[in-house]
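worker-3 :: picked Potassium transporter TrkA
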Amino acid sequence: MIVRVRVEQTPLPGIGVRHDLVTSSGRTVGVVSHRNGRRDLVLYDVDDPDACLASIPLTDDEAEALADVLGASLMLGQLAGLRQQASGLLTEQIGLGAGSPFVGRRLGDTRARTRTGASIVAVMRDREVIVSPGPSFVFEPNDVVVAVGTRDGLDGVSAILAGDDDG
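worker-3 :: tokens ->
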């Protein structure tokens, strides 16, 4: 099933640009990106789409955090949907403690997929989600690894990252 979402872009002369999204419930939300770099999150009146009910100014950090939260929840929701479709396939978030032997080392050094059959599909770091990290990706303390696989495979990835697997 393909779900299409329409985002309309409207130039605002002398101000910047506005991007509006109409949700499936009929609500319109938007982001006004000002020429000076400021961003406002806006919510429109359902009865009058030209009337703004609320405008929330966002700092760069706040805009980035909001994008990360939405991106992370979308990715995890998609993984959960995949899990429901594939019997025996699970997703798990695995915290990488400061004592892990892989802190400061590359993802490829784990050989996790080869050793366990499970795949590391993302890493969450602070407010950032790194999707599909490559073998040269370097782990940092407190990274949260998102892995997909069987129960045994995920247990294996946890053991590898913790240094409890001699493989």
